Amino acid sequence: EADIYQTPRYLVIGTGKKITLECSQTMGHDKMYWYQQDPGMELHLIHYSYGVNSTEKGDLSSESTVSRIRTEHFPLTLESARPSHTSQYLCASSEPGLNEKLFFGSGTQLSVL
Amino acid sequence: AQSVAQPEDQVNVAEGNPLTVKCTYSVSGNPYLFWYVQYPNRGLQFLLKYITGDNLVKGSYGFEAEFNKSQTSFHLKKPSALVSDSALYFCAVRDGYNFNKFYFGSGTKLNVKP
What we know:
The complex is a heterodimer of chains A (113) and B (114). By secondary structure, chain A is an all-beta fold.
């Protein structure tokens, strides 16, 4: 089992609320990622980080923001949630090197009413 | 542009029969290919990867995958399916230029019936 944790597991909130999805890993990995997953669709990369104080946007445009102040922690924030943000959000990390695999958390299922 | 296609939304197979889950890819540069499995209410778990070398790659839980460069395919196989193999399977390819990016297919639901 991978040591990467996401909270909350499920979140139902109203439109306009600010939310933060938490992701932590205890493996000391420098690289971390946020993916968005919708049923029957590809996983889309929305943010990634090479290490502390490094964040990059992924290929899918997202209104979310991320921060990386500590190696183990990579939270994702939505300043004002909308129904279009309803989705599953998966956090992942990877070992150093070119050929490393990804370790995924269990995901946060977000529903915005 | 990098992309992965999984042409089948669902694959049904009887327990004990061989299974194949298909994947084709498009990537610039050398392909680094991966298979992941997702069980209900769980995150994706790594199954196997192809980087270079032997075209037949062996992975976890008895799965293997065959890399075919001419057909740009990386099909997942298992000689004898188990009911417990029922899950969602994702093929992924690493970006040929930005090694920090992976591109995933849309997933194939594998149903193994007793």
